[in-house]
Design goal:
215 residues, alpha/beta, Rossmann fold, two-stranded antiparallel ribbon, 9 strands, binds S-adenosyl-L-homocysteine, methyltransferase, cytoplasm, protein-L-isoaspartate (D-aspartate) O-methyltransferase activity
């Protein structure tokens, strides 16, 4: 039987994810349900199923699918979890999280990105996701504490307010390091007595910046 081009692209996309180490079936299913082409606009849309980061508005990027998959997998989201994502960008990562968690909050410092991402969330009828324009380095105190926190922009160190808004037993995954150099993806677990830090892999993300963007 012949496969449609879309089905074939989808199969190659999932194959690429598996070959890069994304093996968690819940994560793969969530990524299969989330069409990356919707989140990539303009002339890069036809490259949406390739495993590479792509430019979005406001000089930002939508992450490489395999990195999205590995970060989501490292976050170990359970179906009852309340999750915070810092760095909505295109909304792609948040949409994936919405399939895995009970409730997702996502924040970005750029109004333009927020407006575009919200339009897609509405179009996809995602009802367990709330998106705000805010400086995410302060977290989201009104909704804290969180079971899981995912940061998709690089800070030099894990921001204190985010550590404080993590539940005991909770997990945060984030890139740390100087911008423009190799950063480390780390996993932080909050224990009864403190925090446990684990280095996962080198990554490259745009920087976590202070304050709101002017667009
Ligand atoms: N997760 C996104 C990609 C993120 S790119 C996706 O799936 O497409 C990183 C994003 O972090 C950018 O959109 C940038 O505006 C945002 N960002 C940087 N610093 C921030 C901060 N302090 N608070 C909130 N968002 C921030």
């Amino acid at each position: 039987m012949m496969m449609t081009p879309r089905a074939q692209q989808q199969m190659q996309f999932l194959f690429a994810l598996r070959s890069k180490g994304v093996t968690d079936t819940r994560v793969l299913t969530a990524m299969e349900k989330t069409d990356r082409a919707l989140f990539v606009r303009g002339h890069f849309a036809d490259r949406a199923y390739e495993d590479m980061p792509l430019p979005i508005a406001c000089g930002q990027t939508i992450s490489q699918p395999s990195v999205v998959g590995l970060m989501t997998q490292a976050l170990q989201v359970a179906p009852r979890d309340k999750v915070l994502e810092v760095g909505t960008g295109s909304g792609y990562q948040a949409a994936i999280l919405s399939h895995l968690a009970r409730r997702v909050y996502t924040v970005d410092r750029h109004k333009t990105l927020m407006r575009d991402a919200r339009a897609i969330f509405e179009r996809l009828d995602i009802t367990n996701l709330t998106a705000f324009t805010a400086d995410g380095s302060f977290g989201l105190p009104a909704q804290a504490p969180f079971d899981r926190i995912l940061v998709t922009a690089a800070a030099e160190d894990p921001p204190g307010p985010l550590l404080a808004q993590l539940k005991v037993g909770g997990i945060m995954v984030l890139p740390v390091g100087q911008s423009d150099s190799v950063q480390q993806l780390i996993r932080v677990r909050r224990l009864e007595t403190g925090f446990d830090y684990e280095e996962l892999r080198p990554v490259r993300f745009v920087p976590l910046l202070e304050g709101l963007g002017n667009d």
